[in-house]
Design a protein that fits this description.
By secondary structure, the chain is mainly β. It is about 15% helix and about 40% strand. The chain contains two helices and 13 strands, in the order ββββββββββααβββ. Strands 1, 2, 3, 5, 8, 9, 11 and 12 form an eight-stranded antiparallel beta sheet that branches. Strand 6 and strand 7 form a beta hairpin. It starts with a strand and ends with a strand.
Length: about 210
């Protein structure tokens, strides 16, 4: 699992259903022991080792409700984004950019071997049922039934969203940290902008070897 709450390595299945039109950007960045940084595309399985560092980038566009969860190799479930279940209850945070973790921080991968699964879901409308169940789960993490119910709902939505129309993927470049100098082109890394007229759901799997 990830030290400090999260960890992983992976690949992808993807996709959607049919709601409104929306787009958003996501990226996963890995820093190895030599300090070299690369993007994780998930086109093929990505390998990580103990001590590698990981960051996640999410950029919301107009009306793009994005949710990211981690089910780690220890079979623990975490909400990675939004920062709390009530995040979308007020005015929609259009063009919100999130680095996870924030600031100059990175997640450190520990030596626990196995597969970590990220569930990335997005829609043009709020997923109130997902937010409500997530809130109950976070309020009582010791209840195994709540984790099981939430994981089942997440998996059901991914499966449902995988049976609709297609989506467009446009390569994008973003900075791996918002505090990096704007003049430093080496801080630019690859990300993906997703555009669709449906919903979007994908499982990103990371394997700690």
């Amino acid at each position: 699992m990830i030290i400090v709450v999260l960890l992983m390595v992976g690949m992808v299945p993807a996709v959607l259903g049919a709601e409104g039109s929306f787009s958003f950007t996501w990226g996963f960045f890995l820093k190895d022991g030599r300090g070299e940084i690369k993007s994780l595309a998930f086109d093929t399985q990505e390998g990580v080792v103990s001590g590698d560092l990981l960051r996640i980038y999410l950029e919301l566009r107009d009306r793009s409700y994005v949710y990211l969860y981690l089910f780690d190799s220890m079979e623990d479930l975490y909400m990675v984004f939004p920062p709390d279940p009530g995040f979308y209850r007020g005015e929609f945070p259009a063009w919100h950019k999130a680095y996870i973790p924030s600031g100059r921080n990175w997640f450190t991968l520990d030596d626990a071997k196995g597969t970590e699964r990220f569930f990335l879901l997005a829609s043009a409308t709020r997923m109130a049922d997902l937010e409500e169940l997530t809130g109950r789960f976070l309020a009582d993490r010791d209840d195994p039934d709540l984790q099981g119910d939430l994981l089942a709902l997440i998996r059901t939505k991914v499966e449902l969203f995988s049976g609709g129309s297609g989506f467009d993927v446009v390569p994008a470049q973003v900075r791996y940290g918002k505090l990096m100098s704007l003049a430093n082109h080496d801080s630019l890394v690859d990300a993906k902008t997703i555009s669709t007229h449906g919903n979007y759901g994908v499982v990103l799997e990371l394997v700690n070897k």
